[in-house]
Amino acid sequence: MGKEDSQCQSQKVNREKSCVYNVNINMLPKDKHHVDKLKVFNCLYTNADSLPNKLDELKARIQYCEGSMDIIGITEINPKNCRYYPGKAELQIDGYDLFMDENNEVKKRGVGLYIRRELKAEEVKINTKFQESVWVTVKLNNKDKIIIGCIYKSPNSSQENLDALKDLIRNIAQPNKEHSHVLIMGDFNYNRIDWNQWTSGNDREGEAFLECIRDSYLIQHVNTITRSRENSVPSMLDLILTNEEEMIDNLHVKDPLGHSDHCVMEFQFKCYFEQCNISEERWNYFKGNYEQMKKKLDLDWDKILTDSNPNKLFNIFVEKFNKAKSECIPKIISKIYNKAKMHNYVPLDEKTITKIKKKHRAWQRYMESREGGKYRKYVKLRNQVKNMIRKAKAVMEKDIAKDVKKNPKRFWKYANSKRKTKSGISELKYKLGNEVITTKGDKDKAEVLAEFFSSVFTIEPKEGIPILNHKDITFKCEDIKIKEKEVLDLLLNVNPNKSPGPDGIHPKALKELAEILAKPLTIIFNTSIQTGIVPDLWKIGNIIALFKKGDKSDPGNYRPVSLTSVVGKLMEKIVRKVIVNHMIKNDLYSKKQFGFISGRSTTLQLLLVMEEWTEILDKGGAIDTIYMDFMKAFDKVPHKRLITKLESYGLSNQIIKWVDNFLNERNQKVTVNGNESSNRPVTSGIPQGSVLGPILFVIYINDLPECVEANTYLFADDTKIFREIKTEEDRKHLQDDLDKLQQWSDTWLLKFHPNKCKVMSISNKRLTEVTTTYYLHDQDGKSVELSRSEGEKDLGVMVDDKVNFDKHIQQQVNKANSIMGLIRRTYTFLDETSFRYLFQALVRPHLEYAEAVWSPFTKKDIDTIEKVQKRATKLIPSLKNMDYPNRLKKLKMPTLQYRRLRGDMIEVYKIINGIYDHKVVTGFFELSDVEQTRGHNKKLRKLSCKINKRKNYFSNRVIDVWNNLPQEAVSAKSVKDFEIAIDKHWENQEMKYNHNANIELKTGRKRSYTIIQRDDDKIEADKVVDDQRP
Predict the structure, then answer these.
(1) Which pLDDT tens digit goes with each residue over 95-114?
(2) Which helix (H) or strand (E) holds 116?
(3) Does the N-terminal or the C-terminal CB of the chain have fewer CB atoms within 10 Å?
(4) Do residues 116 and 68 lie in contact, with contact meaning Cβ atoms separated by under 8 Å?
(5) What are phi and psi of 597, to 5 degrees?
(6) CA 301, CA 995: separation in Å to the nearest integer?
(7) Model pTM above 0.90
């Protein structure tokens, strides 16, 4: 009995300790310095190349740097070829604990970690054969721990040591309850790896290390040169690895210590995101009593809404809605700092809750009696509760996965609740006179962003509005008369998971009350369109700032997205539909504009452009392409000039009057974490995030391609012009086109950003490279030379001057791998069903966007992409011991190679059968003129090609496969029917579950690739037909 009492008392003490760890860190009366250090660590890393003679300089850096250093990693501590190794005592720094790899059985350069003493780091001995590394852990909030490692890999490492390094990293990166955060820094000496492109040339060991990092789902943060010495090629040898993307911030590469040739890296390691203790009261629309609310809003709206001013009508409607809402929708009070964790709570059924209560009572009875039998009863109930909660969590995770395509927001909320860090708006820097000031808090950030977003507006002169000739209109644009059925359909199709606008009317309520609200909204909509007055609440924008790229402290690197009234957006949809129908019926859209137009897409535009480029390259030609960049295009559209263009396209006076009112007298405010800026007037531009905005911008820029002779392609404001370059005269013509674009820009007050416009020259390597300078003018009228680029992001696809898409493939593989790593960290119970939902909805789209444009034809690239799915399927516990083809069969998921081929066929079907706009795809394929005695009647003609890029480009590689499809597939009536037909036709293809297999054509031939080596060390593939069968 005494033993049991002692055991139970120990259990109680442990239980009390665990309760302390689970308290929110902001609620604990701890030292402020300690709490701050648990949020952010200031870190320094360098390769010292002999620390003893640089120790004083290191101490000086630590003393005078901004903010005290918490973690310092040093490699190559020992002098080269030394007989004497300095000990810890000689290298100590006051205030720090020094941890070193002190095993001197082999000659080592030495690695060490200085950890600030207050952090109470503990050394961890890792069972590894790798020769030089040191590891420590530091306790964080709750039960979290960070494991910190410092590594040195000699450039002369043996294969055994190289393999041991990869095993060590995979081991450390395993999901581990012992440590939640991972920080690894060191000199890895992989000088052939290009970390910006994630390629290693022909270095097999470098490629193996890249795969190790991907297998471990780690993030590498260094992207600049870290080692440079005279008469040698600069390289990126020093790396920083973490297990989450947002953990590293403010990474700066600074000058070396002493005569070392390695730079010093200073950075911040973020343990947790900032939490704000702000109470927030909000309406819980998903728990509303909508039956009761229907009764309260079932009013005689014809008698209530009689005013001729839509402003007053909408205010009356909002008042009635809010009154019913206050009686039927419950309120909840939550704290913003706890909001992320709310999505981590497991919903429990009554049976589980009852069992938890029984467990509590069992514990109380034991504490009163201290009887062993009652303690055993408590333990039994405790274990039952634990299993029931585990099952409930597994069900919840499965539901989130199943719903991920329809409601991705729910997944991201759950994933964010598991993240230790997250991206947000950093402290911003702005100029006040000659002084640079840094914001302090979210309120300051909101004001700075609001001021910046307002500063970019165009000041349009009242005089000098260009006069345009009116377009020839065949079908007149009729006035709008809105019917109640149309409004009802819009309400029923509202997405209930979106956020409400400034009027506070939630889309969930609109959807639930659709039958009741259709009547009053029809009255308001008709009054608005007839009077040309837009209610003021529809013209207020709550701005959310989204980071684009670059320096996070620069307000110019954030894009404003306007959150407006959901009801107002429904009205915008009605007006947009009329405008779009008018433009289509009268064939007014430019054939070169692909943005926001039905039957056109980013993929189609890229296919057409690459078709022209590869055809020119196949003939031995060269192309000069200029990627244009508008300055804040959507924000700078001048309203009077836009109205002039709408008039020239023959839109009705009713629509023009309404749009004019919609654009004018708008206001916006910026919100950052619940902190709002003051209101700012919007004097130009189109609201980003509105329904009507994109189509208005497309109309505004619609005539731009008419002013140039060069090939011009647009997707909204993304503009590129190019021309085949045969002689110097062609370059002069291209410069003339730039001058014409400049003139269009000056006339329509939509300025280009010369410093961001890029020139890319594309040619076969064997051609002599000739470069010409192109110019634009800046806002002051000065001529600016356009810079050259070897690669540009073109509608989401990285296009380089060799048109080989290597960099794009590596980028997309890294993105997909990163999201798969997030899923791995988020999901406790990842079964086959959940994996399939999550992978298909969140990971695979990154590997398949515009795949017809960049589809790889080298084995190396095919394998690189396939490995994402291959390593992901290993994460399912029940499948990890199967080989890859059998895992796919079990999951009923085909290889990515098979899906790309299937995707090619779908694109061909869309082009041939008019799913894409026939005005822009006419002539893309030619029907074969050879008489066919077998097969289908839509066979395509195959043209001869010279170079591999052209042979393996979409328009050529699809011909054989398409021509071998059955008649029932090519004659399918819809894309869905076509997909079903080819799936049935290919159901027994070996390639479906084995990406190394070849597609077997109906004739008995197989489509395969022969890998060959080129002079430029690039591996390419010539398409051949082999394995002839009798």
Answers:
(1) 999 999 866 445 678 899 99
(2) strand 111-116
(3) C
(4) yes
(5) -120, 130
(6) 63
(7) no
